[in-house]
Amino acid sequence: MQSSLCCETLWLVRTAGIVMRGALRPIKPLPRRLIPVSVRHTTSDSQAGAQLQLDNQQPPSDVQKPPFGFLKGCRLRTPHGIWDSRNIHSLLRALGDHLDLAHSPNMKLLPGFQQASFNLLLNESLLCEDGADARYVPGEGWKFRVWVGGRMHFSMPWTHWSMEDNSDVCTVEKVSDIKITGDLANEDTKVMITLTKDYFPGQKFQNKGSFKWSPKKHTLPYVTEKKHLCFMRKVPASLRSVDVRRKIAPPVEPFHAQTMVPSPALLFRFSAISKNDHRIHLDTEFTQRVYGIPKLLVHGPLTAVLMLEVLRKGLEIYAGAGPSTYAVEHFQYKNLMPLFVDEKITIACKKSDTSNSDDEQSTSKPAGPEERWQVWIQKGEGENTTLAVRGKAIVTVHSKEGRYGV
Questions:
Q1: What is the pLDDT of residues 353-373, one digit of tens each?
Q2: What is the sign of the dihedral through the CA atoms of 277, 280, 285 and 286?
Q3: What are the Cα distances from residue 201, in Å, to 45, 84, 156, 204, 362?
Q4: What are residue 147's DSSP bridge partners?
Q5: Residue 3: its pLDDT value, please?
Q6: Residue 223: is it exposed, middle or buried by C-beta count within 10 angstroms (0-12/13-18/19+)?
Q7: How many Å apart are CA 213 and CA 235, to the nearest integer?
């Protein structure tokens, strides 16, 4: 009798949220789950939905899958081919109206300028209401997004190779990480999504009458970029005002600094060059009405390019007429406060005395001796001066004669 009672079961069907009391009969396995494999948003939130398919590979499991786990590892379609040298040159010209740029040899891929190539022009059906890419949105309710920061690794110093000699590129982009801050029942909870994009040496081959691209075997990416985005159900108060509500003291005594004002034209040009349709960089009326943000926001990727260009100029001054040149190997940055259009900002850099455990580490042997630099953006005047973006760079030292190392 005791053995018979042990066969009685109470099991929970999570998808229905109710408890089923089983009789004295063999327990049937749970049906295989339907999991979302892609999210397709239209300009109407009510039409947003997920395409489902039966998972025939995974066995039934009593372990609850993490929220939004269907996005992890999702690969995004990206273009392949040759570097867009025209776009890259256009970005350099646009920045030249605002910054004192370092010498820029032709056909060199400057750090951060990979963002001007291999961006897909999406069909409007794959855009959210705010014009942003809908392919990795966590769900219908998460309709607000902002850029949090990113990391870049350059496997070869830009000073020692050209886009002309390394023209064929295969890009691979995927959702590499998902984190949830807070309880999903709380309206203030945020979903942090990381996209990783690799720019590999590519090779083209023919398959069933069409050409395909793949990374060359046994090669490292020219560039690996991690992009951190924050998805929200409501916009926090910190974004709804141009007033500085908290102040973070910026580093002191920069080696090199430049002051600029990001203009509407610069934001428009960067959006066009990077094929970024997000309306918070383009449409003031929409930004104020839907996001509740008073002014257009400076793109996160543009912020990175501005920091890298000021650092490149600083390294040019630092090298002077000596025998060495300096190239960024790693760069990471984090947005602490919003940067608004027509708002004066100062971009600065200086050599760092110590390393940090949070620095991105190379998986390969450095191409030369390393130095660490701080890069940051500050805004405000006098007592209202505050750090807005914090960055770090690992810089390798090379011979100007074209040899790695010194």
A1: 865 555 555 455 555 689 999
A2: positive
A3: 39, 15, 12, 10, 19
A4: 229
A5: 45
A6: buried
A7: 40
| Distance of alpha carbon 151 from alpha carbon 225, whole angstroms | 6
Question: Above 70 in pLDDT, residue 11?
Answer: no
pLDDT in tens, 33-64: 333 333 333 333 333 333 323 333 444 444 44
The domains found in the chain, sorted by start residue, are 69-355+362-399 (3.10.129.10)
* Contact call for residues 233 and 187 (beta carbons, < 8 A): yes
Which tokens belong to 348? 């600065």
Identify whether the C-beta of residue 255 lies closer than 8 Å to the C-beta of residue 326: no
pLDDT recorded at residue 111: 97
Separation in Å, CA 371 to CA 354, 366, 392, 395: 9, 11, 11, 5
Degrees to nearest 5, angle at CA 149 with 148 and 153: 155
CB 220 within 8 A of CB 187: no
Per-residue three-class SS string for the chain: CHHHHHCCCEEEECCCCEEEECCCCCCCCCCCCEEEEEEECCCCHHHCEEEEEECCCCCCCCCCCCCCHHHCCCEECCCCEECCHHHHHHHHHHHHCCCCCCCCCCCCCCCCHHHHCCCCCCCHHHECCCCCECCCCCCCCCCEEEEEEEEEEECCCHHHCCCCCCCEEEEEEEEEEEEEECCCCCCCCEEEEEEEEEEEEEEEEEECCEEEEEECCCCCCCEEEEEEEEEECCCCHHHCCCCCCCCCCCCCCCCEEEEECCCHHHHHHHHHHHCCCCHHHCCHHHHHHHHCCCCCECCHHHHHHHHHHHHHHHHHHHHCCCCEEEEEEEEEEEECCCCECCCCEEEEEEECCCCCCCCCCCCCCCCCCEEEEEEEEEECCHHHCEEEEEEEEEEEEEECCCCCCC
CA dihedral 63, 69, 70, 75 (to 10 degrees): -140
* Confidence bin at 244 (pLDDT 50/70/90): confident
User: Which amino acid, residue 267?
Assistant: L
Cβ atoms of 301 and 147 within 8 Å: the answer is yes
Measured in residues, the chain has a length of 406
Bridge partner list, 230: 146, 192
Residue 133, pLDDT > 70, answer yes
Q: Which amino acid is at 183?
A: D
Cα-trace Rg, the chain: 25
